[in-house]
Amino acid sequence: MAVLDSFDSLQAEIDADVEIVQLARERRDVFKTALSTAPDVKLVWGSGSLARSTQLQPVHDVDLVVEFDPDQHPEWGQPGKSAEDAIERCRDLVHELLSSESGSHAQLVRQVNTANRNRAAKCFIDPPGSDDAFTVDVMPALRRSDGILIPFKREERWSLADPEYLINEVAARQREWPQFRPLVRVLKYWARQHKQDTGRVKSLVMEVLALECLSQANRPEALKNFFIEASNHDLVIEDPAELSGLIQPDLDTAGLRRALEDSAASASAAVKAVANNDQPTATRLWQSIFGEAFPLVLPPTGEPDPGPRPIKDSPQG
Questions:
Q1: Which contacts of 260-264 are long-range, i.e. CB under 8 A and separated by 24 or more positions?
Q2: pLDDT tens digits, residue range 299-308?
Q3: pLDDT in tens, 110-134
Q4: What pLDDT is recorded for position 300?
Q5: What is the pLDDT of residues 214-232, one digit of tens each?
Q6: What single DSSP character describes residue 275?
Q7: All residues at 6 or more sequence positions from 48 whose CB lies less than 8 Å from its CB, including other chains
């Protein structure tokens, strides 16, 4: 076993289960087909990490955008109650078409929650407590030439966004380099592992940071270079479509930078260890970055490498 085998094991651990992803896509397609039949709906399409194929294990939700006909809702897009009205229209459509009790298209959704939702109707399908439960978020939108208008219920406003931009950017990078999406998932997992040091880092922050700092190379070299580049980034992570501003205004940039710097140092040492034909030390360093999901390569003795012997301070004189 070598370092690259350990990376394979890490990837298998963090990638979403193929069967769950297939189920998520099947449910997405049921929603798309049903909602597209509504007379005031023009188009339904998937967004979020599932659409970009950057989702981690487990799948938490499926995001859908429902484009409504502005001619049938002329008051939408204006400040005030119209944002809430649009989300409630999504709730009504899901109940009518997909309710587990009386859906006319399919009997699938047991509950739709809009009370605490700011931009979308959250649809619950699986029984409470299910191990693989995930929700479908249905967000209303109005198409414009420069993007889509999406509602913000609490703020009583609509804002311009372009989620298709990021979908297309990720797809283009993947076509150039087949390791891009898998390594984006690795970096999102890294953020989870370092939450104690960084606070919550939104997955979208890591995804955009990857677009800016992750360059083509073999996996260890690419990750080493990412951590070095990202640790020198200003960490002002904004909507790549340049429409919505900061992705996470409450981001702990100091904590994130320290974690990136520590990982850059460990990744650089790990790459150097492989160059010196020291696979056990390399995997120990990578494990310090990604946690126990990254398997160790044992030294010839069969015992884990304990690393350098700690130096203990002792009184002088």
A1: 260/227, 260/230, 260/231, 261/227, 261/231, 263/190, 263/194, 263/227, 263/231, 263/289, 264/224, 264/227, 264/228, 264/230, 264/231
A2: 876 555 444 4
A3: 999 999 999 999 999 998 878 778 9
A4: 74
A5: 999 999 999 999 999 999 9
A6: H
A7: 55, 61, 62, 63, 137, 163
Kindly list the domain boundaries of the chain, sorted by start residue.
16-161, 166-290
Q: Side-chain half-sphere of 220: how many Cα atoms within 13 Å?
A: 25
pLDDT of residue 203: 94
Q: What are phi and psi of 54, to 5 degrees?
A: -120, 20
Instruction: Give the fold, CATH level 3, of 16-161.
Output: Beta Polymerase; domain 2 (3.30.460)
Asked if 234 and 242 touch (Cβ cutoff 8 Å), the reply is no
Q: What is the mean pLDDT of residues 56-64?
A: 90
Instruction: Please count the residues of the chain.
Output: 317
Q: Which long-range CB contacts under 8 A does 306-309 form with residues at least 24 apart? A: 307/281
For residues 11 and 296, the answer to whether their CB atoms sit within 8 Å is no
